[in-house]
Design a protein that fits this description.
five-stranded antiparallel sheet, single chain, five-stranded mixed sheet, about 550 residues
């Protein structure tokens, strides 16, 4: 970036004089133009330094003021007027107007031509831009060579810090430091640096999504300008390239050169993402095979410990599946890019948190879903508090809310599919669950769940052949017999307890049980009959609704 101030400090341009005292000479100059056309502002590119003799405004200072106003609104870098042939001097009214806008008004000496001034200024600007371009391309080449050779993010950031001679760090979407230059260990200015202090600024930069700069106070004695550049491998949640003391970056390291470094870093991050996706596909396939109920005979022949050792599978007497899903939000789920970003970042977050908070917990993608499966291989204490903390800390960093659906524990590896099915069933029923909890346990089902695929007619036949007329009683006497039988069996065939629960005399209980035994032609406390009776009572009770 070349400014008017920089141009005027060059000896060969020292004869160009600034006419107004409040001129803003920090304006960037991209090109030089010569014109005598009053409405030229409509056709000029931004940041133009315009040269003119002002012949169109001879003896008309008000029109010249209007011309300056049009250049200011463009915005142009400044206006250089050659005095002599058409204007001998600039009216004080014009100078005062330019001053009110802080717009640079310069005097070109009458001894030089506008063409020669334009040529010299353009030559300098183009040389500067060419130097910066070559420098940036050289940096890109160095970074590209490092990337091709497999340099990691830490090596790339360290190299960038060396080139810039400024502290540099790479921050992930969770505002955690991924890599940093050595300046943070060697520069005494950063001896009191605490990353936690920077997080609010980085969070705001994430929200803005564009390049940003801010003044950051390391301690009472040290304040530095920090520039943040987003690196977008994710459409919604970018990484951030953070450069400290950005206002002191030495020439010729230009904005364009920083963009080249940004490009190489984005390619490296994208490569890492694709490598992760490839590994996830393998993990997904393994988990799918591990959690399938079919072909159990074949599965028993597989040495799962050997097959799963690369994924961390171990021998244990405790296995438990937890399905991790995202909180439903119809307004955003239609955005596929958001779903993909959220999916990948959640895996990264969960993998790190599980390694810190759990022992031998494994994480797998679940096939044909946007959910993850956690396999616990050890009885965990404070499971709910750990899961809640993982969910809460993620939500503090990103707009992602998780739900955990937990299946029952099993004691054998071959039974993991039971815990998985229970966790998935709990996940599928989340829409029917009320409450604000993010943790949901599988609710054990009754007999009806076990026989849900058995035809209703067969269930009724079993109930009728077992309970006889007590299966679906019609008269009051049979209803009382059924009620007494049910309480008697639930009371472990204890006559005294049954009489207390029914508020009837012991002899009445004895009489009714005798009537039942007469009906069944067997003692009610016979083990086989007792089991059948209890099952039939439960099933016929549940089937009353279906019959109705």
């Amino acid at each position: 970036m070349t400014t008017l101030k920089e141009l005027l400090e060059i000896p060969r341009f020292s004869n160009i004089r600034v006419l107004n005292t409040h001129a803003d000479l920090s304006k960037e100059v991209d090109t030089i133009e010569i014109t005598e056309t009053p409405d030229v502002a409509l056709y000029l590119p931004k940041n133009t330094f315009l040269l003119t003799t002002a012949m169109a405004f001879k003896n008309d200072p008000k029109k010249l003021c209007a011309f300056i106003q049009s250049l200011y609104e463009l915005p142009a870098a400044g206006l250089g007027i050659k005095l002599g042939r058409f204007l001998s001097e600039i009216d004080e009214e014009v100078i005062a107007f330019a001053d009110s806008l802080n717009f640079p008004l310069l005097q070109i000496p009458s001894t030089v031509t506008l063409g020669s001034v334009s040529h010299q200024l353009l030559s300098y600007i183009w040389n500067q831009q060419t130097d910066k371009l070559y420098y940036a391309l050289d940096i890109q080449k160095k970074f590209s060579n490092m990337m091709i050779k497999g340099a990691d993010l830490q090596a790339l950031i360290s190299h960038l810090g060396t080139i810039l001679k400024r502290p540099v760090m790479l921050v992930n979407p969770f505002t955690e430091i991924v890599a940093e230059s050595r300046h943070f260990q060697q520069d005494l200015v950063f001896s009191n640096y605490r990353h936690q202090q920077l997080i609010p600024y980085l969070t705001k930069a994430h929200t803005i999504g564009n390049e940003a700069s801010f003044l950051f106070e390391i301690d009472a004695d040290n304040k530095v300008l920090v520039s943040v550049f987003p690196i977008k491998i994710n459409a919604y949640f970018p990484y951030l390239l953070v450069i400290f003391k950005a206002d002191q970056i030495p020439y010729p390291f230009s904005q364009f050169a920083i963009e080249q470094a940004n490009t190489v870093l984005s390619h490296t991050l994208y490569k890492n993402l694709k490598i992760t996706e490839s590994k996830l596909q393998l993990r997904e396939t393994f988990f799918y095979q591990l959690t399938q109920e079919t072909n159990q005979v074949k599965k028993s022949d597989i040495n799962w410990l050997d097959y799963g050792k690369d994924y961390g599978l171990i021998a244990s007497d405790h296995y438990n599946i937890i399905v991790v899903s995202f909180e439903s939000d119809d307004s955003t789920l239609i955005d596929e890019e958001l779903i993909a970003d959220r999916y990948h970042l959640t895996f990264e977050w969960l993998e790190k948190q599980l390694s810190q908070k759990f022992e031998n917990a494994l994480l797998f993608p679940i096939k044909d879903t946007v959910c993850y499966g956690i396999l616990l291989q050890k009885k965990e204490t404070n499971l709910e508090s750990k899961l809640n903390l993982i969910c809460q800390q993620l939500k503090e960093r990103l707009p992602i809310s998780l739900h955990f659906s937990i299946g029952n524990e099993v004691a054998e590896m071959a039974s993991i599919h039971f815990s998985y099915q229970e966790a998935m069933e709990t996940y599928r029923s989340l829409s029917q669950i009320n409450g604000k909890s993010n943790i949901h346990y599988y609710q054990t089902q009754g007999f009806s769940k076990l026989i849900e695929n058995t035809p209703l007619g067969q269930v009724e036949h079993f109930c009728t052949t077992t309970l006889k007329k007590l299966a679906f009683p019609v008269n009051e006497m049979d209803k009382e017999l059924r009620k007494t039988l049910k309480i008697y069996l639930e009371s472990q065939c204890d006559i005294t307890l049954t009489s207390k629960l029914l508020f009837i005399h012991r002899n009445t209980v004895k009489y009714r049980i005798a009537k039942c035994e007469e009906l069944f032609d067997m003692p009610v406390n016979d083990p086989d009959l007792s089991l059948k009776l209890r099952l039939a009572l439960e099933l016929s009770e549940e089937n009353k609704t279906n019959r109705g």
